[in-house]
Amino acid sequence: MKLKQSITLVALLTPLVFSLCTKDPAGLPGVITPEYDDSPYELDYGRFAEPDMGDNPLTLEGVKLGRMLFYEKLLSKDNSISCGSCHIQQDGFSDPDQFSAGVDGSLGKRQAMPIFNMLWHTNEFFWDGRAHLLRDQSLMPIQDELEMKETLENVVTKLSETTTYPAQFIRAFGDAEITSVRMSLAMEQFMNSIISNQSKYDKYLDGQATLTESEERGRILFSTEYNPGFPELSGADCAHCHGGSNFDNNRYMNNGLDADAAQDDIGREAATGDPRDRAKFKVPSLRNIALTSPYMHDGRFTTLEVVVDHYDHGIVISETVDPALAYSAQTGLQLTDQDKIDLINFMKTLTDETMITDERFSDPFQ
User: Fold this and answer.
1) Distances 81 to 64, 141, 188 between C-alpha atoms, Å
2) Mean pLDDT across the chain, nearest whole number?
């Protein structure tokens, strides 16, 4: 009787065992074949203007792939660093070091710019704007001789040899072909998904937070124009360059750091070839500014106090310096010590604690 029951049980289990061992079209036993999924990624952009996605709308699988690639160390020559090594989430996706360390410890020439709200950057990328689109920017550090020091061909080969990436490229693009173009599109999607709009200041605008007296005085100073004729009515005039929802102006400007003879980095001129762009650099957003030190294209200023002092009384005149800054340099901004404290306290309200802890933007390999 027991023998008969055992034979019956074996007969019932045999088809199940064979079904589990049968290879799927991908050639892997018991593995479900990945399928293309173009489900849209829901973007919460709050008070910002509706962004133009262009020809690369965000999808759940595209953003997922971009996140994987952003933190993938295979993109570097010796598999030691990733994009996330120099754009650190807790630091506002910037680098706390003045210059980022590349493969073999080589140092870059400029401070790593923060990555967030990239959808609203409409004037190209990097400090000098040499990358026309964000997808172009995403591939340049891989090939840079001071950064990842790798070739795109080698990266494609390394990713193709994994079991993870061909499957994810199927989900994001419809087939397993890995190309540098597809890599760039996916990384562009991930970086475009990083939104910063949950600061104390945003909550203040929504009626969900109240500014302290110092922060409110700083807010007024920030937006009030410089007025040398009436010092008591004069402000810090920050909004001249750092305005709008993202606290920037989509321009390249010379902000009075060096005299003509001391301009070792020609800035925007290197990308345009126009001498009128000499020593001009992309105006960064002031969102999360308390997290993204050191400051300026070369990281020369370590604190916000030093930055405020520069604009208050440290502007250096040169041929391409912004006219508004040259104008204020005639007397300086004449900020009091309390004015400076208030101004910095307001800028600290632009910190987005949600963005720097959001798991959607974190390293998926940890």
Assistant:
1) 19, 11, 19
2) 92
